[in-house]
Every structure is written in structure tokens, then in C-alpha cells.
Design brief:
13 helices, TIM Barrel, 279 residues, globular, two-stranded antiparallel sheet, 42% helix, alpha/beta, single chain, 6 strands, four-stranded parallel sheet
Length: 279
């Protein structure tokens, strides 16, 4: 497949170009992937309302979101380890977003740090924050994001504990620290020589750029999901939201609320998956 003609073609291209430990991380979900499958099914059930005899010779999809004008009601979502999929992947993504006139959101666990993305961007971008146990690191990230002109903060509340991703254990991204795990991942990468040269050699450094000060001599990639499990704050509550607001005064987007809090005490049979599309 030389070029992508449809959305799913990009998935096929990614499977061919990426080593398994990276493709499975991008493509997979937690546990038995019930929620992942349900989200796909629910989106497939959405039908567009057809309107005929309407002049569509001039269509304008521009909108304003959180004070920022954009050409489409679309945002490039944060993706962890994007810089391992393409050379300095987060930089490439923010440049693509700039060209398209839409916002880009940088992940806390991206490879490229805030400063590098800001230097490559011609427009303000968003920053996505996981609540990390080291509150000093959280404050420093918020201070840096504000100083670099990030226009919105996306605060994640639906992952106090990272779910077990079975595909990642099978592929070697998770549960495989040390030289043995590194050799396994390197072996997969070498079977994709173009990516190994372009990203593996020319795309260095390979570490979690935003949290590098807390990593010391490590990269965060030795056991990526193990690092997340050991450093994410499982005690996150509404008080953490107040703490975040103390250090961030711009637009604050809370990601992960699927059910209204005032309904959550009632019918426990509420299917949060049904509400995903309207969250």
C-alpha cells in the first residue's frame, strides 16, 4: 500500500512501518478492550442528517474554541510516545496542526518536551496533564506551559491507575525492563530498517521529555507503563483540580467525565460507554 485512500488505510500503513511494541500500543486498549470495541460500534451507529437542496458551493467550518480561532472543529489529541513513531513526532504533529489551522495538544508523556514543541510551533498549542505524585514536577510543568504560551490545559481525570494493556505485555512495551526487554524491542525495531534509521538514529534523544528532570539517568521507556503506574497519583480527587487551578489560570479542560456526578449515586447499571460520544 503506497498511499492512504481511507482512514483505516493509515492503520494498515502503521502496522507495516512500526515495530509491534509501538503499533500495539497505538492500536490497543486496556484489558479485554471491551470499551475500545464499544466506542467503535457506537460511533458507527451515528448517522448524519441529510439536508438536500442547500447551497454547498461555499462551506466554512471555522469556529472558535477556548478563545482560539481554528479552521475546523477538530483538535489533534495528545498521544504518548508520538516521538517514537516518527522522527520527533510531536514536532511534526504541531507543524501539521499549524498548517491545517487546528489546535495541537502535547502529552505529558510525549517524547518531545514543551520547549521543543513551542520552538517549532507558529501558534499556541494545548498541554495535557496527568496528575503525577511529584507535585513539584506538576507545578514546574504548569509554569513552563504558561511561560511558553500554551493556550489551554487538558486535565486527565479518568486514569488514576493505568489499566493493564495485555497487548503491551505480549509485545514487550510493558513488563520487560532491563537489557532483556531492551534487546527484545531493539530486535523488533531492526526488522523495520527505515524507521530504525529515521527515528531510532536520527530522532534521538528518546526519553519522556517533559518529565526528564524526574527521571535522572533513565529515559522512562525502560518499562513505560510501569513508570506510569509508579508515578501517577492514584489518590486524585476534586482537591487536585483545585490545586491545578491555583497554578493554571487559562482555559482548563477536564477530560474523562462520562457520567454526571449527581447521577453516579443512583442506577449503577448506567452504561458509561453509551455516553462516550456526548462526554
Amino acid at each position: 500500500m503506497a498511499k492512504a485512500a481511507a482512514v483505516l488505510d493509515y492503520r494498515a500503513l502503521a502496522r507495516r512501518r512500526l515495530p509491534p511494541f509501538l503499533f500495539e500500543y497505538l492500536d490497543g486498549g486496556s484489558y479485554a478492550e471491551v470499551t475500545l470495541k464499544r466506542n467503535v460500534e457506537i460511533l458507527g451507529q451515528l448517522a448524519l442528517r441529510q439536508r438536500v437542496l442547500a447551497d454547498v458551493s461555499s462551506i466554512d467550518l471555522a469556529t472558535t474554541l477556548f478563545g482560539q480561532s481554528q479552521s475546523l472543529p477538530v483538535v489533534l489529541a495528545p498521544i504518548g510516545l508520538a516521538g517514537m513513531n516518527a522522527r520527533r513526532g510531536e514536532v511534526q504533529a504541531v507543524r501539521a496542526a499549524n498548517r491545517a489551522g487546528v489546535p495541537f495538544c502535547l502529552s505529558t508523556v510525549g517524547v518531545c518536551p514543551l520547549a521543543e514543541v513551542a520552538a517549532a510551533s507558529s501558534a499556541p498549542f494545548w498541554f495535557q496533564l496527568y496528575m503525577i505524585r511529584d507535585r513539584g514536577l506538576v507545578v514546574s510543568l504548569l509554569d513552563e506551559a504558561r511561560a511558553l504560551g500554551c493556550s489551554a490545559l487538558v486535565f486527565i481525570v479518568d486514569m488514576p491507575v493505568p489499566g493493564s494493556r495485555y497487548r503491551d505485555y505480549r509485545s514487550g512495551l510493558a513488563g520487560a525492563p532491563g537489557l532483556r526487554g531492551a534487546a527484545r524491542r531493539a530486535g523488533q525495531a531492526l526488522r523495520h530498517p527505515h524507521r530504525a534509521f529515521d527515528v531510532g538514529l536520527q530522532g534521538r534523544p528518546h526519553h519522556l521529555g517533559n518529565v526528564a528532570p524526574a527521571l535522572g539517568s533513565k529515559t522512562g521507556l525502560e518499562d513505560f507503563l510501569g513508570w506510569m503506574r509508579g508515578n501517577f497519583a492514584s489518590s486524585i480527587t476534586w482537591a487536585n483540580l483545585a490545586f491545578t487551578r491555583q497554578h493554571w489560570h487559562g482555559p482548563l479542560i477536564i477530560k474523562g467525565i462520562l457520567v454526571r456526578p449527581d447521577l453516579d449515586h443512583g442506577d449503577r447499571s448506567i452504561d458509561a460507554g453509551r455516553l462516550t460520544g456526548s462526554a
